[in-house]
Amino acid sequence: MRTTCWAVLLCGLVATDVRADDAVEARKLVDRAVKALGGEEALAKATGYTFQVEGKIAAEAEVDVKGDWSVQGLDRYRWNLQATVMGRTQELSLVFVGEKGWVTNPADGRTNDIPKELIPVVLNVFRLARLAQNPLALRDKAFTLSHLGELKINDRDMVGLKIQRKGAPEVDLFLDKKTALPYKAELRQKEGPGGEEVSHSFYFDDYKDAGPVKHFGKVRFERDGKSLIELAVSEVKAEEKINDDVFARPEKK
Question: 43-74, pLDDT tens digit by residue?
């Protein structure tokens, strides 16, 4: 009986040490990514970003899109977009602030709320990209990190990081082994009326200097391995604070 107790205790201690070492290695990966993207001082001042995008969305008919993004922290997003399909162009502004979201049509000034059940799904996807854009946020104690080891993605050597946060889906972030720049970010979550679990993935490439930070120049979004959105990113500006008016809901007329 005593032998069994000691064996259980020792196994527990060994497991604790393994988890501790795993967390240390995971934090080292975050540090490498922070350094690769411009360093702690630069990223600490880059809590917000503005940038232009242009590309395509794969829908029933291919949609050409372009516009500008403003993002602040992990809970403020605005995309002013122009979507062109079959020669017809429509402008929209998509905004999320905390757990609220709405779409405004500049042509008639109408603003409609985004369905409540859709908001957390979209926010999880946006936050997925933001953690790759500025991994300094991963030093927050709200995140639990673990190392996923080395692997190849599209014939490129990667190292992986698992990110857990209470109330949010697990995120897998993969860094280029040589440069430590984020290459892929992925999560699985339920969506749609039937609660189907699907994978959402971003691929980041073509990094360029954007002032004191580095930022991807190309991004691709996939759902269950199928490419849905491909965008070129330009005119990136890192900002410490974007004006609150950018994310304000239009007043009713």
Answer: 999 999 999 999 999 877 789 999 999 999 99
Kindly report the number of other CB atoms within 10 A of residue 238's CB atom.
23
Q: Which helix (H) or strand (E) holds 14?
A: helix 2-36
Instruction: Name the region of 168 (left: φ>0; alpha: ψ -120 to 50; beta: rest).
Output: beta
Contact 184, 153 (CB under 8 A): yes
| Backbone angle region of 69, left / alpha / beta, with phi > 0 → left and psi within -120 to 50 → alpha | beta
Q: What's the CATH code, domain 12-247? A: 2.50.20.10
| 243 vs 12: CA distance, rounded Å | 51
Q: Coil, helix or strand for 21?
A: helix
Which pTM value belongs to this model?
0.88
Domain ranges of the chain: 12-247
Q: What sign results for the dihedral spanned by CA atoms 238, 251, 95, 145?
A: positive
Whole-number pLDDT of residue 18: 38
Q: Using an 8 Å Cβ cutoff, are 242 and 72 in contact? A: yes
Q: Where are the beta strands (DSSP E) in the chain?
A: 48-57, 63-72, 76-85, 88-97, 100-105, 110-113, 143-153, 156-165, 171-176, 182-191, 196-205, 208-210, 213-215, 218-223, 226-239
Provide the 8-state DSSP code for 2.
H
For the record, the structure tokens of 89 come out as: 């162009």
| Tokens, residue 134 | 């500025």
Tokens of 135: 């991994």
